[in-house]
Specification:
Oligomer: single chain
Strand order of the largest sheet: 1-6-5-8-3
Shape: globular
Distance between the termini: 35 Å
Largest sheet: 5 strands, antiparallel
Order of helices and strands: EEHEEEEEEEHEHHHHHHHHH
Strand content: 15-25%
Radius of gyration: 20 Å
CATH topology of the largest domain: Jelly Rolls
Number of domains: 2
């Protein structure tokens, strides 16, 4: 889990569903939609906002991004659960390939109120990003529960309210257990988590300056080999891989949401040679920047037609 400071200060609006000003949300106790359904309409960025009465769960099954919790920014990758209590300012920045679900439901339907004594009450009172490690039984069950809630919400069959409440409560209880175990097992003397947070902050700031791995290692006061080992152990990717992945995310965002040519995108990303940018992009994605842009424009166009969008009923 990577955190960094969010220096933006702005008024935080209150929504029931993000971007909807009317009171339609007051007629539901739970709402479910795919993450792309709403984030694609806002260029994959959900600005800072809050929900006064609603708790939110995001199940991340594909893509990556940043969760903004007040003054903190937390990185998330696939197979993660993001939990946001009521009245907490939050926002998100998603990669264009993001996938998963977002559940918005009345906090009064929670099995335990946020802030009540006990591990679950404490967990529910603060925003969290919890990684579901592959091969762990509880993590697989969390995903199964939330995916079942999504199917029940969409299917609208008899008994769905009981099944959705049970699924949400089970997923939250198991997520709290995983998060609590991770906290209790952490070594206070281990500086690796802080190093990863610092690396994430530097990477976000310097990505368009094309800094080498030695730059980040020197800034953190360790050798490049040590940095690579720490990152690999915690994220599964080495320093160069993480740099390349983040640069590709920036490139994809530019290609989708700016009208400039591939050459102009290359220059904005700090590439002095557009041909090298195209080769780099192709190695990482299997497509040229132009092919990728055209394919994504077709895909997003189909969502605009409503074929892939889940809307509130």
């Amino acid at each position: 889990m990577m955190k960094r400071k969010n220096d933006q200060a702005r008024p935080i609006p209150t929504y029931e569903l993000y971007g909807e000003e009317d009171a339609a949300g007051s007629r539901f106790w739970v709402h479910c939609e795919t993450i792309p359904a709403r984030s694609a309409l806002h260029h994959w960025e959900i600005g800072l906002h809050r929900h006064e009465q609603y708790f939110q769960i995001l199940l991340i099954t594909g893509g990556s991004g940043d969760a903004v919790f007040g003054s903190e920014i937390v990185r998330f990758e696939p197979n993660s659960v993001v939990t946001v209590p009521p009245a907490v300012g939050h926002g998100f920045r998603f990669s264009p390939d993001i996938d998963g679900y977002v559940f918005t439901f009345l906090a009064s339907r929670l099995p335990v109120r946020p802030g009540e004594p006990g591990a679950l009450g404490h967990f529910l009172s603060t925003p969290q990003v919890t990684r579901l490690e592959p091969g762990v039984e509880d993590g697989a069950l969390i995903q199964t529960c939330l995916q079942r809630v999504a199917r029940e919400w969409e299917g609208r069959l008899s008994g769905r309210t009981v099944l959705m409440e049970t699924g949400l409560a089970t997923a939250l209880a198991l997520t709290a257990r995983i998060a609590t175990q991770e906290l209790s097992e952490a070594d206070p003397a281990d500086d690796n988590d802080r190093r990863i947070e610092a690396f994430s902050t530097l990477l976000h700031r310097e990505i368009r300056n094309h800094r080498p791995a030695t730059f980040y290692a020197t800034a953190l006061g360790i050798t490049p080999t040590h940095l690579n080992r720490v990152l690999k152990a915690k994220t599964g990717f080495g320093t160069q891989e993480l740099i390349a992945r983040r640069l590709i995310e920036e490139a994809q965002r530019e290609l989708i949401f700016t009208p400039g040519s591939v050459k102009e995108v290359a220059f904005r990303l700090g590439f002095s040679d557009p041909a090298y940018f195209s080769r780099f992009f192709s190695r990482q994605t299997g497509s040229t920047p132009r092919e990728w842009r055209e394919r994504e424009q077709v895909r997003l166009g189909s969502r605009d037609d409503g074929s892939m969008r889940v809307t509130m009923r």
